Amino acid sequence: MRRAHAAGFSLVEVMVALIIISIGLLGIAKLQAVALSSTGTAGKRGLAAIEAASMASAMHTDRAYWSANTAPTSTTLTGAVVSAATDAGLMAPVDCTVAGNRPCTTVRMAAYDLSTIATSLQTILPGYTGTIACNQTVAPPPVVCTITLTWIESAVASNSQGVQTGAAAAFQTPTYTLYVEP
Q1: How far apart are CA 93 and CA 116, in angstroms?
Q2: How many Cα atoms are found within 13 Å in the side-chain-facing hemisphere of 72?
Q3: Nearest of 123, 11, 117 to residue 61 by alpha carbon
Q4: For the packed helices 11-61 and 106-124, what is the interaxial angle rounded to 10 degrees?
Q5: Among 10, 118, 166, 176, which residue's Cβ finds the most Cβ atoms within 10 Å?
Q6: Which of 71, 69, 53, 177 is nearest to 117 (CA)?
């Protein structure tokens, strides 16, 4: 008597198919994580550009202070404050919107603007450092200033080669630089 061959899949074939599908789904999940991380990184970089442009706009508005040869050669923002400046007047901001503080001098206005921008930067880019370096050796003026924002960001790597260590980790401390002529 002849035996008939059983039709259908064996248990081994089903298990192999499940393993292949599982590996594919894990790859898709990892790509989704990388895409989400990249979107967050791009968003922070875009916001850094907007904040640097806002700082440049404030410098244009306070042109009487920033374009003079008395403008500070170096100003550093960290946290919600101006942490260092060659002009000590920038380190003590006064709220120029309060009636008792009007009229606001050019130094007070610049300090108020920098303090407001520093608070905004601290919210958007935790752990940032902002510097404004103005070159006043140009004769005749205009004064040229460089705004530099540096912050720390975390990124997700898609594979072990993408994990950054040592000097390659500089990608995780991006810098945005904007040149301004107030």
Answers
A1: 9
A2: 22
A3: 117
A4: 180
A5: 118
A6: 53
Cα–Cα distance for residue pair 115/93, rounded to 1 Å: 6
Residue 64 to residue 141: CA distance in whole angstroms = 13
DSSP state of 151: -
**Residues forming beta bridges with residue 135, ordered by sequence position:** 144
Give the model confidence (pLDDT) of 88-142 as tens digits. Answer: 888 888 887 888 877 888 888 899 999 999 999 999 998 899 999 998 765 666 7
Partner residues linked to 180 by β-bridges: 145
Structure tokens belonging to residue 104: 């606001």
Half-sphere exposure (Cβ direction) of 125: Cα atoms closer than 13 Å = 30
DSSP class of residue 159 equals S
Overall pTM > 0.85: no
Say which residue the tokens 């904007």 belong to. Answer: 178
> Beta-carbon neighbour count of residue 153 at 10 Å?
17
Q: Do the beta carbons of residue 145 and residue 180 sit within 8 Å?
A: yes
Quote the tokens at residue 152: 């720390």
